[in-house]
């Protein structure tokens, strides 16, 4: 008697702007004839996973490929009341441009991971509106304000489970393909910053995302009477925050995967991509494709082994 086909779970990990690599991963798996039976995501992985399961991946990919620096900056909603980015503009955009529905109405099982800020425990979101679950899962501390759900404040699931292999197993996956966006981050060094008193105006054509974000942050500091002094500049606040988050994500990911290993790991190499460089989608998507191509022999061997081939 032939064995029943294994249930394939896809665990899409956290990684902020590096998360557009998940689109390339999904495309490459589809090209190889591999369709996950269920999808779980943490943070940006929850956003891309929800779009995929909801049949919105084409629209999402077209949108992210068209993102420009100015568009990314327009979603910033400066706030010192819990995060630098309230997240309302971004989520309202998704509500307006993508079909929102209940998670239980999606074409295949889907789950997102968030963190209960008060209790420090992992929260699995498997019901309710898709955008509400995504909003909670992407609430990266210090950047996005927390999301409230059923009386609890929820933040980014990457704090407790950056690559949700355990959720895939709990939902019935026999084989878990896990995408780790943080595998090569610890070797990334802060760029040296020249000494200067205050940020000088930057020509529009040479402006970077870091320049735009720091301009907004500096404006907020000025309103509070907090200005940078003279002398050599330490790493910018956004750089310190990004590097600290990278360290945290890498160490938590390694710890969780050691105890809850995936069957196949997909590891896009994206250390050069900044935390909030969402406008560099083409780089991330291509890295996702290449990572799947490298992992395909192992994946095919695993699938054939389960099927008795």
Question: In terms of topology, how is this protein built?
Answer:
Layout: E1 8-12, H1 21-31, E2 38-42, H2 44-53, H3 57-65, H4 69-74, E3 83-85, H5 88-97, E4 110-116, E5 122-125, H6 130-137, E6 142-144, E7 147-149, E8 152-156, H7 165-170, E9 175-179, H8 209-223, H9 237-259, E10 264-266, H10 281-307
Parallel strand pairs: 1-2, 1-9, 2-4, 3-6, 9-10
Antiparallel strand pairs: 4-5, 4-8, 7-8
Account of the 3D structure:
The structure is a single chain. By secondary structure, this protein is of the alpha/beta class. The protein contains ten helices and ten strands. Strands 1, 2, 4, 5, 7, 8, 9 and 10 form an eight-stranded mixed sheet that branches. Strand 1, helix 1 and strand 2 form a beta-alpha-beta unit. Helix 1 packs across helix 10 and helix 2 packs antiparallel against helix 6.
Structural class: alpha/beta
Report on the biggest sheet: 8 strands, mixed
Series of H and E elements: EHEHHHEHEEHEEEHEHHEH
Helix content: 40-55%
Q: How many helices does DSSP assign? A: 10
The percent range for strand residues is 5-15%
* Average pLDDT rating: 81
Radius of gyration: 20 Å
Which oligomerization state do the chains in this entry correspond to? single chain
Give the uncertain stretches in residue-range form: 191-206, 220-230
Q: Distance between the terminal alpha carbons, to the nearest Å?
A: 13 Å
Which descriptor suits the 3D outline? Answer: globular
Tell me how many strands there are.
10
């Amino acid at each position: 008697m032939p064995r029943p086909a294994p249930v394939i779970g896809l665990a899409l990990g956290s990684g902020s702007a590096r998360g557009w690599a998940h689109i390339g991963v999904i495309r490459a798996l589809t090209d190889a004839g591999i369709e996950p039976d269920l999808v779980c995501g943490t943070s940006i992985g929850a956003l891309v996973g929800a779009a995929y399961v909801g049949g919105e991946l084409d629209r999402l990919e077209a949108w992210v490929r068209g993102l420009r620096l100015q568009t990314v900056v327009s979603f910033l909603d400066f706030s010192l009341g819990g995060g630098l980015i309230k997240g309302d503009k971004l989520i309202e955009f998704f509500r307006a441009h993508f079909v929102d529905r209940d998670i239980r109405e999606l074409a295949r099982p889907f789950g997102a991971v968030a963190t209960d800020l008060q209790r420090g425990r992992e929260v699995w979101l498997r019901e309710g509106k898709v955008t509400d679950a995504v909003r909670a899962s992407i609430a990266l501390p210090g950047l996005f304000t927390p999301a409230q759900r059923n009386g609890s404040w929820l933040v980014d699931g990457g704090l407790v489970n950056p690559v949700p292999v355990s959720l895939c197993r709990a939902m019935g996956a026999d084989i878990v393909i896990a995408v780790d966006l943080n595998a090569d981050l610890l070797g990334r060094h802060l760029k040296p910053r020249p000494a200067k008193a205050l940020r000088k105006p930057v020509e529009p054509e040479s402006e970077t995302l870091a320049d735009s974000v720091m301009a907004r942050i500096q404006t907020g500091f000025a309103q509070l009477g907090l200005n940078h002094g003279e002398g050599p500049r330490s790493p910018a606040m956004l750089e310190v925050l990004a590097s600290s988050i990278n360290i945290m994500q890498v160490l938590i990911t390694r710890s969780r995967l050691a105890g809850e290993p995936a069957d196949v790991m997909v590891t896009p190499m994206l250390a050069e991509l900044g935390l909030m460089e969402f406008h560099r989608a083409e780089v991330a998507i291509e890295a996702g494709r290449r990572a799947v191509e490298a992992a395909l022999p192992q994946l095919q061997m695993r699938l054939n082994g389960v099927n008795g081939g």
